[in-house]
Structure formats: structure tokens, C-alpha cells
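Format notes (please read before filing issues)

Several people have asked whether sequences and C-alpha cells are stored in separate files. They are not. Every record keeps both together, in the order shown below: the sequence lines, then the C-alpha cell lines. Line labels are part of the format and must not be stripped during preprocessing.
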Amino acid sequence: MTTIDVPESWGEARSKTVQWFDPKVGLEAAVGKTGLEYLTAMMNGEIPGAPIGGLFNMRPVEVAQGDVVFTCAPDESMYNPIGMVHGGVACTLLDSVAGCAVHTTLPAGVGYSSIEIKLNYLRPIHAHTGEIRAHGWVTKPGRRVAFAEADLRDADGTLLATATSACLIMGG
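Then the structure lines:
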């Protein structure tokens, strides 16, 4: 770790610990499971979540066929230079729930990858916004490409961002 001299006016340095588990464990647990079975096991804590979940404080809280909800507790470590949560956090959450919604529709041995996402940022997100909920749902399943939508809301239900997504279906 490199240490730099900083002015006292910056105050005390802040830190947080990020924890994740070996992603191979989750990948090995996916063998033989449908997407719905895999994500349900993840939500229930039977298998570890994706490492990105630890980085972004996000976790699945609802999983159903073609429909998922993740929560996230943003903090100031996610701020951009203008004093709000970076738009990439909202994008990551929306991409995750849209893709995972598609994943719930897939049989064992079939995967997906996002090939397009379009976002609309509607309101700023701050650390004081509190827990946010990202909801993703499939609008059109497919054998080669599937389509999903997603939205991001605060605890009061205020709409913060929306997304549309396309996912390439692979394998099988």
C-alpha cells in the first residue's frame, strides 16, 4: 500500500472491508441446477454469492421465474467527484437484476451474458438515501437473445433509475 501525505483539512482516512468467497465454489454448485434453482440457493445462503455482491453491498432478496429483486446499501465509498453515488453502481445493480431475471428462465447448463443495456438516471443517490431495491423482470425470453427490464427504487418506492437489457443465451 502506498502512503501519501495529505492536508489535515481532508480529515481522517476512512476504510471498509470487502469480503467475498471463492467464485469457483458457486460455479461448481451451479452444475446440474436450473438458473432458478441456482439463484434461489444463492439467496438462501446455501452457496456463496458473486464476488461483485460483496463489493457493492448487494444481495438477492426475492427470486422467482423471470423476476428477481436485489437490495443494496450505498455508502460514501461509492461517491463520484460531485458528491453522489456513482452512476456505475446503479448500472451494475440494474444489469445484475436484469441478467439474473433472465437466468431464472434458463435450464441447467445454459448461461447468459449481457449484450446491451440502456439506463435512464432519474434521481441522485446518496449514502443517506438508505437501502435501495433493484427489481428485474423478463419481458421476452428467447433461445438466442432474451430481453428484460429493471428499475431501482428507494425505501419509499421513489423511482431512481430504469433500464432495458438484452442478454445473449449461451450453451445447452
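For reference, the curators noted about this record: The beta strands are 58-64, 67-72, 110-121, 132-140, 145-153, 159-171. The longest strand covers residues 159-171.
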